[in-house]
Amino acid sequence: MRRTAVVVAALLVSTSALVAQTPKIKPEIRPFVGAIIPTGALRESFADAGMVGAQLAVEVRPGLHVLGTFAWVPGQDKYGMGLDNVSIYQYDVGVELGWVEPFAADWELRPFIGFGMGGRAYAYEASALTDRHCAAGYGAVGTEFQLARTALRLEARDNFFCYRSPMAGVASATRNDIGLSLGVAYHLR
């Protein structure tokens, strides 16, 4: 009996020590606004457009975040049928790697790089155009200026994706655009 009590006590003490050493996972909500700027051949098909979206992130360690992003772009296509509206949806999961620098009093500067993959969907209003879905990926750079649990966030993304024209008979191709965003990060813990 005594031996069992010693084993249970040892397990409780070692478990407490292990939990104390495990980094605390910190969830974040990150709403943002910005713009998408088509580049290369994509510029012939789409105009610059505004963007709104949100990210859900988990800070695994101070320099490592895992995140999911959803963005909506109310775009304008240029397919010869006037400027028809198209809703562009981008959704992805990714990782951010960075570091924390103390900055002016209680502020922290948190620069990062990121990358991820997901998908992109085009929903056209014109009935002559076919909605399309395709794989997407991104590379990102940015920073946060954090005070306590709130941060101002700046991010630039190079989005690359397979693009399938809404017109029948046009082959798919790899395209890219630049996404610029300004947002706020709410650190929940």
Q: What is this entry, summarized?
A:
This protein is mainly beta and 189 residues long. It has 1 helix and 9 strands. β3 and β4 (85-98) form a beta hairpin.
Please count the beta strands (DSSP E, at least 2 residues each): 9
Mean pLDDT: 87
Give the low-confidence spans: 14-21
Radius of gyration: 22 Å
Looking at the overall shape, the CATH architecture is Beta Barrel
What is the H/E string? HEEEEEEEEE
**CATH secondary-structure class:** Mainly Beta
Structure description:
The structure is a single chain. With 189 residues, the protein is mostly beta strands. The chain has one domain (24-187): Porin. The chain is 11% helix and 63% strand. The protein has 1 helix and 9 strands; from the N terminus they run H-E-E-E-E-E-E-E-E-E. It has one helix spanning 2-21, and strands at residues 26-38, 49-61, 64-76, 85-98, 101-103, 107-124, 132-147, 150-163, 173-187. It has an 8-stranded antiparallel beta barrel with strand order 1-2-3-4-6-7-8-9. It starts with a helix and ends with a strand.
